[in-house]
Amino acid sequence: MLYSSELEFVTVWLVGGITGVISAVGFLLASALYYAKQTRLREAKVSPKFYAPIHKNPVFKYRALRVLTCSAFLALTLVSFVRAQSTHPRQVAVASASIVYITCLSVLSVVPSPALSAMANRHANALLLSLFSVYAYRDIWPLFTFDKRSIDIDEGQILWLKVAALGIAAIAIPFACPNQAYPATMDQLNPETTNPEEHASLLSLFTHSYSDSFIFERYRTKTPLTVDQLPPLANADHSDAVMPRILSILDPPSSAERPYLFWGLLRAYRRRVCVLAFLNILQFALTFVAPISIKQVLSYLENNGEGATIRPWVWVSGLFLGPFLKAIFSQLLTYMACRNNVQISGVLNQLLLRHALKIRTDSGHHPREQKEKSNFTGRLNNLAASDAAEVAGRSDYWIVFVSFPLELALCLWFLYAMLKWRYLIPPRAMMVTDTITSAMIGFAFILLCVPVPRYIAEILRGIETKKKYKTDARIQTVTEGESLSFLP
Q1: Does 486 reside within a domain?
Q2: What stretch or stretches form a coiled coil here (predicted)?
């Protein structure tokens, strides 16, 4: 039998059946909305876009390769079903229908229609990943253990051909496929007018390999770099694309709706905020992979493999993969945080200048006797010159407060699992106390030290406030002195 237990039937039914039904319903609804929108555009006589031939688009070959791998996986699955002669026709029907549906989605993703191909591509990637997770649990994970056996091992070589085809379609192609519009216009395919980062694949973004050609070209030419030789600015970083959306949140037309600066920036960058928080937690969690792997390897050597369920080469691989993945995600976090800081700095400067033009500095609002107290010109210059950059540079400090509870929980678990030890009562008591873990002691010490950084921060805040007031007064004096020097 192909599926011998109720658990196996549930996994196939849930992943293969329910996810396929949900995807099919969502795909049909999205397609209906798309064609309704196209009908309205045709009635409004909107001129259509002209796209480049699809064979010139680098995305086409990856999606065509996915069609071939999905077709090969479907053929291998049908062959294995026929050979197995399963007595569970419902399971076979569910699995076959799911694979046929995925193959049809991969074919639709090649169609040169922007909305239809994009929807089909998203649904195909999600279903392929869910199907690969089932095969990883059933057939790949047992290879990492001593006490488990691949459920579908009776299929022989066909099983590993299926896993290879599914791995290429679900993992390799989505990671290696460029993030290029499909279909694309000739301007979108022109490398001289587009930034390579915009069209880089996930693998290229993680490793920053999209900048290799530019770096090696500069290395070969040995000429000084000029501004004209830099790659064009990405469309997402242009002020025309960034400012209207963010200013509508930070500086709406109605002053009653104007939020606080922090909440406004958090709302404007909510998606990037979630990504940054996730990356911060992920790279922190990866720091525990190497210590856990070392502990498991030493435990395996100490006990000569007795009681071990996971093979030692898995933990040896963790010694490399843990720091390696942590470095990748840490650099990606740094890159995205710096990019946000630059954008927020530009937003704050434009917002400041926008309001500065609205200010009328007449004598009724700023009398001469209060100039030294107000230091209005000095504050305005400091806001534009240094304060905006400082606010932008500290815009990602909130990530520490978001990820701190989870990081504390991970540290507590690690200390409890790895560093527990026994305290002994003095010899005259001649008894051993219960197990007391160092985790509890470390956790208590952390809680006791929580007020210390807050106290230090309050002291530094007071000093920084006084410094800013004196800086405003100094800039005010210099500005007034320079203004008087130009008088006849």
Answers
A1: no
A2: none
